[in-house]
């Protein structure tokens, strides 16, 4: 019998490029048909055949309190009744800004925007505007949204500026982006020695989640903090994914490092489009209307999305929230690892707070190069075996997974049982 997902996918491809509005959803690397989701609740979502899955995508991070949490839904409904958008300031935006500043001490002022891409792009412009420098450093494998300067891969050799990874990005933009190795502090030091006075900023995912899960070493981030201060470059932590996900104070609270700017998204919108960037007022004062760095948005600080964000940020402050989220995530990756060992599969796994990575490699990868050596064919087989068992993992070997507060012991145990059967098939 043809699945409704197949019918919808065929139909979607006629009106939408690739049938999806964000590429990884299309299942290109794992093959097969993406599920078209009709509803979600707690740790589950249902597809167009009304089949229920345990969801480990969690909307790629936002769904930390579980899908359709009654408090968040109620906040959205109440806000919607009062009006959808005003284009004039509201008290909710102040509450949101105050809460972010309270929870992330390195942020003293914050601006709300509508996507992580927009937040990272704006943070870069701010860093460039404040320093008067053009060049930026990013790290291979980190994703910061799809602003032109950030869609750049490493050039060949140290101190070679990057090449565009996307058609449509002018070489003239890419040439200002230097792409270095993640977790290589010496290379960073050498680069700063050479051209430190030309660098506007370093942008990094302190716990990388866009090349599967790869936490930074403390030494890497400490070195970054030191050289940025020494050379007057702005240190930007992109915590769109790790913020309010790995700990209440984000990765910066775990590593005890204060960046100059922080980029946030995902969890702070609780599933609606909210993102933010913030830091010290000395930097933030460069933004319009106070300063010369322009940045704006018709729907920035939207009352409905901010209501969803505030309700979510309230829930995650409950005592023990992150202890429990971390424990459930640890239980999951331990279960995966033991099941793989029993089946004699070269496999490892890792987690930080409510974020996890599974690797078809005997040891946890410590660098981008090691990550790229993971066995993607094995992952793809495993992914489909799990999907057949009603467990929805990220459809790519190079994405992190996400656990919510609604992933109970029963849900985790059902997932491990599915994984045990899936590993046996590999
Ligand atoms: N930065 C990071 C670290 C991300 O993970 C993402 C999205 N996955 C972005 C930026 C871009 O955010 P958005 O998709 O909301 O534009």
Automatic annotation (TrEMBL):
GO molecular function term, any single one: pyridoxal phosphate binding
EC assignment: 5.4.3.8
Reaction it catalyzes: (S)-4-amino-5-oxopentanoate = 5-aminolevulinate
InterPro entries cross-referenced by the UniProt entry: 4pyrrol_synth_GluAld_NH2Trfase, Aminotrans_3, Aminotrans_3_PPA_site, PyrdxlP-dep_Trfase, PyrdxlP-dep_Trfase_major, PyrdxlP-dep_Trfase_small
GO cellular component: cytoplasm
Keyword Ligase in record: no
Record GO biological process: protoporphyrinogen IX biosynthetic process
Organism of derivation: Herminiimonas fonticola
Cofactor dependency: pyridoxal 5'-phosphate
N6-(pyridoxal phosphate)lysine modified-residue sites: 266
Family that this chain belongs to: Belongs to the class-III pyridoxal-phosphate-dependent aminotransferase family. HemL subfamily.
Assembly and binders: Homodimer.
Subcellular location: Cytoplasm
Top-level EC class: isomerase
Name recorded for this polypeptide: Glutamate-1-semialdehyde 2,1-aminomutase
PANTHER family in alphabetical order: GLUTAMATE-1-SEMIALDEHYDE 2,1-AMINOMUTASE, GLUTAMATE-1-SEMIALDEHYDE 2,1-AMINOMUTASE 1, CHLOROPLASTIC-RELATED
Any Pfam family hit: Aminotran_3
Pathways involved: Porphyrin-containing compound metabolism; protoporphyrin-IX biosynthesis; 5-aminolevulinate from L-glutamyl-tRNA(Glu): step 2/2
Keywords: Cytoplasm, Isomerase, Porphyrin biosynthesis, Pyridoxal phosphate
């Amino acid at each position: 019998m043809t699945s409704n997902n197949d019918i919808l996918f065929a139909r979607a491809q006629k009106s939408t490029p690739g049938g999806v509005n964000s590429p990884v959803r299309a299942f290109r690397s794992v093959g097969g048909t993406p599920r078209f989701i009709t509803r979600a609740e707690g740790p589950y979502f249902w597809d167009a055949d009304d089949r229920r899955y345990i969801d480990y995508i969690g909307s790629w991070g936002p769904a930390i309190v579980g899908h359709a949490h009654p408090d968040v839904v109620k906040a959205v409904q109440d806000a919607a009744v009062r009006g959808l958008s005003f284009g004039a300031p509201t008290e909710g935006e102040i509450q949101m800004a105050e809460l972010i500043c309270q929870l992330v001490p390195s942020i003293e002022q914050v601006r709300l925007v509508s996507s992580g891409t927009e937040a990272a792009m704006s943070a870069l412009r701010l860093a460039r505007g404040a320093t008067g420098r053009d060049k930026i450093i990013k790290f291979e494998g980190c994703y910061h949204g799809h602003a032109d300067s950030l869609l750049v891969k490493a050039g060949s050799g140290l101190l070679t500026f990057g090449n565009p990874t996307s058609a449509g990005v002018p070489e003239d933009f890419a040439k200002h982006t230097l792409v270095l190795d993640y977790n290589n502090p010496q290379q960073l030091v050498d680069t700063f020695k050479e051209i430190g006075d030309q660098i506007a900023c370093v942008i990094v995912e302190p716990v990388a989640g866009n090349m599967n899960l790869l936490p930074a070493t403390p030494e890497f981030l400490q070195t970054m903090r030191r050289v940025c201060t020494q050379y007057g470059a702005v240190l930007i932590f992109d915590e769109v994914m790790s913020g309010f996900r790995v700990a209440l104070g984000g990765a910066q609270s775990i590593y005890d490092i204060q960046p100059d700017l922080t980029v946030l998204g995902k969890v702070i919108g609780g599933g609606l489009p909210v993102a933010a960037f913030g830091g010290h007022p000395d930097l933030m004062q460069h933004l319009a209307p106070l300063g010369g760095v322009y940045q704006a948005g018709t729907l920035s600080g939207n009352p409905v999305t901010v209501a969803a964000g505030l309700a979510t940020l309230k829930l995650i402050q409950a005592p023990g929230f992150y202890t429990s989220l971390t424990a459930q995530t640890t239980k999951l990756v331990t279960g995966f690892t033991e099941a793989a060992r029993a089946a004699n599969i070269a496999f490892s796994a890792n987690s930080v707070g409510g974020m996890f990575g599974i690797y078809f490699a005997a040891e946890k990868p410590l660098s981008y190069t090691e990550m790229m050596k993971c066995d993607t064919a094995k992952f793809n087989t495993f992914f489909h075996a799990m999907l057949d068992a009603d467990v929805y993992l990220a459809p790519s070997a190079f994405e992190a997974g996400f656990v919510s507060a609604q992933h109970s012991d029963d849900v985790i145990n059902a997932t491990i049982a599915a994984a045990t059967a899936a590993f046996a098939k590999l």
